[in-house]
Amino acid sequence: MRICCIGAGYVGGPTMTMVARKCPDIRVDVVDVSAARIAAWNSDNLPVFEPNLDGLVREVRGKNLFFSTDIEECIDKADIVFISVNTPTKTYGYGAGSASDLSYVEACSRTIARASKTGKIVVEKSTMPVRTADVIKTILASSGRKFQVLSNPEFLAEGTAVRDLESPDRVLIGGDEDSEEGRRAIETLASVYARWVPEERIIKTNLWSSELSKLTANAFLAQRISSINAISALCEATGADVDQVAKAVGSDSRIGSSFLKSSVGYGGSCFQKDLLNLIYLCEHFNLPQVAQYWRGVVEMNAFQKKRFSSNVVEGLFRNISGKRLAIFGFAFKENTNDTRESPAIDICKDFLSEHAKLAFYDPKVSKAQICADLGIEENDPRVEFCDSPYAAAEGAHAIVLLTHWDEFKKLDYAKIRKSMTTPAWIFDGRNCLDHRLLIGLGFLVRGIGKGNLS
Ligand code: NAD
Ligand code: UGA
């Protein structure tokens, strides 16, 4: 069997590496229009930072895993073609700011139709709006050859991709359950995953349930974060502690404890875009009340980011003009170099609009990426990029912690405190530091949902 995956991004690269690792008899080709991305996958400097991914890629690359720009040839030779390209929010015309931009998916479908001399199984790996499979089927049908379209959304989270792929909670496969060919295609794909995923974790559904389940899963996860963040505002007003509330609430086995960590707001390339897409679908199907319900999750996230940046300005005597703020972390979460939709972007833009000076430290995000995200030049006098958190904090009025990197918990804060301007503030946007200890060291500390600690 041969597999081709179109799209060598955060999903396509790691996912196909795992398939190749678990199925030594299957040849896997990952193709992309970006020659730079393919070159990076073929180098020692992978385009995606994920714990334990490097070793895995090295094990299988050149054996049964290949990265290439030879898109049409790899498609033609494959039995199964995955579409794992980006599906961003549309920025123009009909549905701008909410609908999914399916132009990349459509381009892939046309390439598959053109390049394939024989029929194949085509798998939606990207997150798609419900009924996108119809679009793909229609384009493929125009080729005159027989294709089966399956939906097989990916549930990995960045930073834990290898673990999630190795031991997924479930693998979801949606297909045409009503036809013999459809059922056979579902079984063929299931047999690939069955090499390492227990049968009971492979869920088989119809196409639309599978497409909708992916959007719903992300909406539920984002909703939990917005729910606890909403409560964090109430905690600050009442003196309750949001971590204590989350623990008490999450101990109820019906509720569960995960995704109840209050923060500066969720980021990442998918929660926002998938929620907006869900809202768009609800509106499209004339369900304005359902759309409004989910819109609340998005609005709460924006409110949380704004509330945090205002709290920083408020704490620093309503004036951060000319003050140095040490920004600890810029990635949207720990253990990734990804900054897409990172809360740090909006928060730092707020600081810059208040004329603050920002000194950045993130262990994995580059200077060029931060500047591109903030829309500033690399030599902008308002920003500085530091090699260590100690250097960033030197002379700063405040530390603003935005990403939950483990190393921030292990720093010598007594040493840091001495190097800062006083009064020295720490705004812990992830509630990951020991606030009592920091107060003991003389810091003024403000967390999320903790009220005014000092
Ligand atoms: P990405 O932007 O990292 O990668 C997409 C890749 O597709 C890019 O390298 C791009 O050059 C390539 N591409 C675009 N059009 C192409 C074409 N016509 N032919 C060949 N290559 C093409 O995106 P990603 O983060 O990997 O996400 C891909 C999909 O998976 C999205 O739908 C996303 O919602 C979904 N998803 C992402 C994650 C995640 O953690 N990032 C998790 C689950 C699902
Ligand atoms: C999320 C989902 O967890 C994956 O299942 C899904 O496949 C993926 O989106 C996708 O479709 O792209 P990801 O965005 O990589 O994965 O990372 P998460 O761990 O979900 O974190 C998302 C954001 O929420 C981060 O900014 C994180 O810091 C924040 N978060 C997470 C909280 O603020 N509190 C929490 O309790 C958990």
Short description:
With 454 residues, the protein is of the alpha/beta class.
Instruction: Please state the overall shape, judged from the principal axes of the Cα atoms.
Output: globular
Number of helices: 17
Q: Compounds present?
A: nicotinamide-adenine-dinucleotide, uridine-5'-diphosphate-glucuronic acid
Low-confidence stretches: none
Q: Largest sheet at a glance?
A: 6 strands, parallel
| Beta-strand content estimate | 5-15%
Number of strands: 14
Kindly state the mean pLDDT as a whole number? 97
Biggest sheet: strand arrangement: 3-2-1-4-5-6
Helix/strand structural class: alpha/beta
Gyration radius, rounded: 24 Å
End-to-end distance: 63 Å
Helix content: 40-55%
How is this structure best described in words?
- The chain is α/β, with parallel strands linked by helices and 454 residues long.
- The chain contains 17 helices and 14 strands.
- The protein has helices at residues 12-22, 35-41, 53-60, 71-77, 103-115, 132-141, 161-166, 180-193, 207-238, 242-250, 271-284, 288-315, 343-353, 367-374, 389-393, 413-419, 435-440, and strands at residues 2-6, 27-31, 65-68, 80-83, 121-124, 148-151, 171-175, 202-206, 324-328, 357-361, 383-385, 398-401, 425-428, 444-446.
- The strands form three sheets. The protein has a six-stranded parallel sheet with strand order 3-2-1-4-5-6, with helices on both faces.
- It starts with a strand and ends in an 8-residue tail after the last strand.
